[in-house]
Model the fold of this input.
Amino acid sequence: MLLGALDSNWISLGPHVESFEREMAAYVGVDSAAALSSGTAALHLALLLCDVGPGDIVATSTLTFAATANAIRYCGAQPLFIDADPATWTMDVTRLEDALLRREANADKLPKVVMPVDIYGQSADYDRIVEVCRPRGIRIVEDAAEALGSTYKDKRCGALGDIGVFSFNGNKIITTASGGMLLSDDTELVARARFMSAQARDPAPHYQHSVVGYNYRLSNLLAALGSAQLEVLDSRVARRRQIFALYREALGDLPGVALMPEASYGACNRWLTCITIDAELLGVTREEVRLHLEKHEVESCPVWKPMHLQPVFAGCSCHGGNVASQIFETGLCLPSGSSLGDDAVDRICTLIRRFAGIP
Done:
């Protein structure tokens, strides 16, 4: 497919973009999709399509990658961070509702958008989020950047808000090297996203622009790569879940070690296998385990540092925060790539067990 795109000489623009959009929309179960240059670009456009601008508030998960909060700031808006639910690591909907009730009681401005994050592939609880947001007229943008192939009840992630967003960054479950996708059942919104992503050029023989646009479209070449990768998505999800099961079997009995829980309402693609380490019980800290693995040429990393702890977002409101902070202090992401072999998983687990003095 990629070679076909090269042979056709359609490198930047071309038919593979539309094909990839149709295939992604069909896979997720929505009416329309726009292929973009990155997941961050998709988040930015999603917020603009919800009329988010200076002075507006967007409530989002504090336990996430910086792109989620950066997109809010691109619009000139203010993030309102919501703590994680310890049972799922996703947005704590009870804390979200409490934050909205407090703002209503104080006659403060409500968020224009709630943007939950399907963290590490785990879906947020969208039925409850809808119950909280819809009566207040709050739009929902689903940051499903890490959750392609995951499900919530009988729906796929990416189809659970007014707008959904995926990332195809190099570390994602399928990749176009860089790239993203904006999805919605609102075909007019998606058409608007395509227009804005192509520098908002008016339909004229000359270059005419009535609104500010962005250079956010995905190239034909990368779209061809995405279509090819989409064909193997389900097998990659199955392998990631198998890798998680191997880690659970080998590490689940260690004192103080817990694997990221799976919500009862869905299936996580297990984009990354994450564990938490209670140093008092295991005898070694998360950071000591990370450095020990690094010494043996095994790359691991802490879980996302919550946004309310980031210097760039100092002073932003956060409702709660202790759960996300604790996950960050104790959480470790283990190697999880779909091509990781069983022997490699066994070696990693043996390194951790022996370092903790447990055979």
Q: What stands out?
A: Residues 234-355 form a domain with the Aspartate Aminotransferase, domain 1 fold (CATH 3.90.1150.10). The CA atoms of residues 192 and 206 lie 20 Å apart.
